[in-house]
Amino acid sequence: MTHASQNAIPHQSVAILIIGNEVLSGRTREANAWFAAKSLFDVGCKLSEVAIVPDIQDKIVSTLRRLHQQYDAVITSGGIGPTHDDITMQSVADAFDVSLLEHADTLQMMTDYYGADALTKGRRRMARLPDGAKPIICEKSICPGAFINNVYVFAGVPHIFASQLTSVLGDFQGIAFHRIEIEANHPESSFAQELSEIQAQHTAIEIGSYPGRCGNQPTGKICVSGTDEVQIAQVKKIIEQMLKDKQKT
Amino acid sequence: MTHASQNAIPHQSVAILIIGNEVLSGRTREANAWFAAKSLFDVGCKLSEVAIVPDIQDKIVSTLRRLHQQYDAVITSGGIGPTHDDITMQSVADAFDVSLLEHADTLQMMTDYYGADALTKGRRRMARLPDGAKPIICEKSICPGAFINNVYVFAGVPHIFASQLTSVLGDFQGIAFHRIEIEANHPESSFAQELSEIQAQHTAIEIGSYPGRCGNQPTGKICVSGTDEVQIAQVKKIIEQMLKDKQKT
């Protein structure tokens, strides 16, 4: 009953859908999209978009349908617990026009784990999966996530989310990205023009520039990333030389 | 030149659009949506959706148009710096089919601040605003944000974002929300059914339930929020009684 990937080609583009009023009201700082962003970057898969929506069924359904159509895969986080405000499994079922059904194997597994007497209505709720979905089992929870079409349905609790994502990370394996950072002792505005020209000459890699500060002095951080390590190293040298030349002028 | 709100009625629904490859690649943990979520909750304005998109012009334009149509107001964060990867102002102009123009007062202010000699091409880039936009000035940066239609364009650097949002927070003033939390010494699944019934009887307030843990014991946190403090207090009592009764059984 462990997750067996059916994806011959790894997912090239992925969106994450975070579901939860607690994030939008500022009660909880979002952590799962951040964990997923790092995990996906490490295996060479592009995180293309993150959406955070409230516990409103229509909103979950419409957002899920949009992301499902736009991207190779969608990962959802949150709303699969035992209480009334956990409506993600029902929303996923609705998004794909299927029923939400008790999953026999999952129910059996949960009955074995809790004992029949302790299988409350709330717990039993967590044995329901959209019709046709496969359960995703992880080490950290007896209650499964789900996989249906190109959608992975995971928990909102960070250590369970992390365990569930890790259990299917093979589906997302691409060509590893690399990233290096260069500290610039100048404000971004002083090298913006030169950096723009270097980017235009090296379109296979991505150059990002971010403001920094050293004491009272504005500085910059330049981030070079991509799949081609050789070109990243070349561009690093070119940028470092450009910054050296700046210092002289 | 400070921001003067033209909004007779405060914004009732708000979306945030975070722009930046650095967030989607896991380099940077998103902080501004979280800050905004807390700030908006405190003034009684509902944060309805957050979208995080990469530094890709088409994607920024299409997402901004969607959010602009769906919500009373949109706040963007990121991509207004001096370098080639800062394309937010151009994208906002494109989204509303207007030109991106040097803003005379802003340019004058920046020239006075930096001196004409130090007004590099990169810095001068930051004096451009979508045609018809008003600059949003804050304490933390000489380079302005912008306000056009129902869109607030802010910086990605957290202390500047916070200062810019704070300077216009009056536009978002609603009826203050209140939130209380109740610790439950039981797992969520044990009171899920009762909580669902309490929520059904009190539709004007919102009850959220979140899993917790005390040592090896799963516990729960129940969060009651809304604008009616009296009803929140009543519901708190009802929930506490329900949890007490659970303890006896």
Summarize the structure.
Chain A is α/β, with parallel strands linked by helices. Helix content of chain A is 39%, strand content 28%. In chain A, the strands form three sheets. Chain A has a six-stranded mixed sheet with strand order 2-1-3-8-7-6, sandwiched between helices.
Ends distance of chain A: 65 Å
What is the succession of H and E elements of chain A? EHHEHEHEHHEEEEHEHEEH
The count of strands of chain A amounts to: 11
Strand content of chain A: 25-35%
Look at the structure and name the CATH superfamily of the largest domain in chain A.
MoaB/Mog-like domain
Averaging pLDDT over every residue of chain A, what do you get?
92
Radius of gyration of chain A: 22 Å
The stretches of 5 or more residues of chain A where confidence is low (pLDDT under 50) are none
Helix content of chain A: 25-40%
* Assigned CATH architecture of the largest domain in chain A: 3-Layer(aba) Sandwich
- Under CATH at level 1, the class of the largest domain in chain A stands as Alpha Beta
Biggest beta sheet attributes of chain A: 6 strands, mixed
Discrete helix count of chain A: 9
Overall tally of domains of chain A = 2
Structural class of chain A: alpha/beta
Largest interface: A-B, 62 and 61 residues
Instruction: Tell me the CATH topology of the largest domain in chain A.
Output: Molybdenum Cofactor Biosythetic Enzyme, Chain A
How would you name the oligomeric state of the polypeptide chains in this document? homodimer
Record the strand order, biggest sheet of chain A: 2-1-3-8-7-6
